[in-house]
Design brief:
heterodimer, A: alpha/beta, Rossmann fold, Alpha-Beta Plaits, 6-stranded mixed β-sheet, 4-stranded antiparallel β-sheet, 11 helices, about 35% helix, elongated, B: about 260 residues
Chain lengths: ~300, ~260
Amino acid sequence: MFAVHVEKLVKIYDNRRVLDGVNLDVPEGEFYALMGPNGSGKTTLASIIAAVKTQDSGIVEVYKNKPAQAKEFIGYVPQENFSSPKLSGGENLMYFANLLGYSRRQANQLVVEMLQNVGLSEEADKRVAKYSGGMRKRLEIATAIFPGIKVLILDEPTTGLDPTARRAFFNMIQEIMDKKTSIILITHIGSDAELASRVGLMDNGKMIAEGTPDELKRKHAVEDAITVETAMKSDSVVSVLKDYSINGKVTESEVGYKIYSRNGDKILADMVRSLDQAGQRVMRIEMARPTLEDVFFRLTERHLQEAIE
Amino acid sequence: MRQISAGYTKAIKELLREKAALFWTIAWPIIWVLIGSFSFTGSAPQGVIPYIKGSIAISMMVFALMIAGMSNLPASIAGDRANGLLAKLKSMPIKPYKDFLGRISAVITLSLLAAALVIVIGIAVGARFTGTGIEILQAIGFVFLVICASAGVGLIAGTLIKNLQGAIMTGVGIAVITSAISGLFAPYEVLPVPLQVFSRVYPISSAQASIVHLLAGPDMVAYNPLTSGQITLTIALSFAFLFAGTVLYSRLGWKLD
C-alpha cells in the first residue's frame, strides 16, 4: 500500500514550473530521500504532500486522501526552526499536544514520553533559546511523531549539524519510528540520502532518477576511485594499473596514481598481487566508493554543491 | 477549546517573557503617566489637577491598549510566520480561527493587565476619577472597543506585512502617529479642524474621549463624545476594524503560497 502517491504534479510560481510533472510513490514504512539542489522543487513537493501548499495540477494522495484530509497522519518538520525560543522544550511540546486535542493528563504523559524518545528529558525545563541546533531539531522532530502519525516529512533536518550530530540524529529517527511509519527526507547531502531505502533525485522541478542508492550508482555508471601509492613511481606501475582502469586511463597525482573502476572491492586484492609480481611495493591503497553526489553530477553535468551555490 | 487555550497559553507566555513588549506596553505608558502628572498640570486650579492627572492616566491606558493590539499582535503573527510555525500549523489538523482566538485572548489579557497597572500608577500619583457604577461599566465597554479596534489594525498589519521588524515598527508607527494626530497626546482644542474631525471619527480617540468624559468629567473633554451618533460611529468603526482584520487574517494570514 502506498502511503504517499503523487502523479503528474505541477506547481507554477511566477510563470516558472517549480514542479514539472513529478511522479512519486512511497510505500508504507519506507524511508525515502528526496535529494537535489536548492530550487530543484523538493521542498515545494514536500510542502504540498504536507498540506502546506496546494498544487496547480496533478494528484497528491496520502493514504488515498487529499493531504488536507489526511493531516492527522502527517508529521511535518519544516526547514526553519519553528519551536518558540521563549518557551522551554516541555512547554513547546505541550503546546503541540494541546493543539492536537489531547486531554491534560494524556498531554502530560505524552510530553514526558516524547522528550524521552528524543533524548531531551534532562533539558525539558530549559528555554529553547539555550538549546544547541541539534537539540532544537530533535525537539521539533518530537512535535511530528505523536501517536497516529504515519508519514513523517523532514525538510533538511541536518542542515547546520556536524557529522557526529547528523549520525546521532538518524540513529534516533530509526529508533523512534515504527516499521509502519513512512519517512520522506528532503536533503541536498548525499551521505544523508544514502541512509534511505530509496532515493529520488530532483533537478529543475523534475524527478531525474529514482532507486536505491546502490541501484542509482550502478545504473548511472559511477565508478569507484582507487588511489595507489607505491614505493617508487614507474612505468611498470602505470602498465599494471591500466589493466584495472575502466577506461585504461591512469592519472598521476602527487602521492601516486589514480584509476577509476567498477566493483573496486573485487579487484583490489588482485591488483595488489599484480603490482607485487611486477616488483612494485604498495605503500598505501585507498578506494573511495561513489556517492549520490557523483550520480547527480553524472546526470546533470553539475556538481550538487555548485548547483546549490 | 483545547486548541484555543494552547494558542492562548503560548502567546501569553511569549508576551510576558518579551522584555521589549513589556516595556512598550506597560513601562512606557507608566513613564508618561509619571511625567505627565508632574509636568503637564501647569497652573490649573488645585481642585482640577487630580482630574487632569486622571485624564492623562486614561490617555496612557488607551495608548498601552493600542500598542498591545497594534504592535504585539502583529509581532506574534509575523514572528511565527518568519520562524516557520505557520507552515507547521498549516500541516496540522487545526483551524486558523482557533489560532486567532488564542492569540487575541492573550493580547486582551496583556492589554487589561497593562491598563490596570497604568490606572493604579495614575491613582498612586494623585489621579482621581468620578463616575457612577453605570458610568464605570460604560467606560469598560469603551475600553473593549479600543481593544477591538487596535487588534483589528494589528491583525491587518500582521497579515499584510510579512517581515517581523516591519510588522512591529508599522504597528508602533500607526499607534504613535494616530495618537499624536487624534488628540491622545495633545488637547483636542489645539488640533487643526481636519484633525479634530479625524479625532471624532477615529474610533480609538473617540473611545478615549468617551472614557475621559465618563471617568474624569465632561470638563476634561472639549466636545461631547457621548451623543448617540458619536457612540454609534465609534462602535461601528471599532468592530469594522476588528472584522476587517479577522477576515484578512483568516484568508491570508496562513496563506504561504
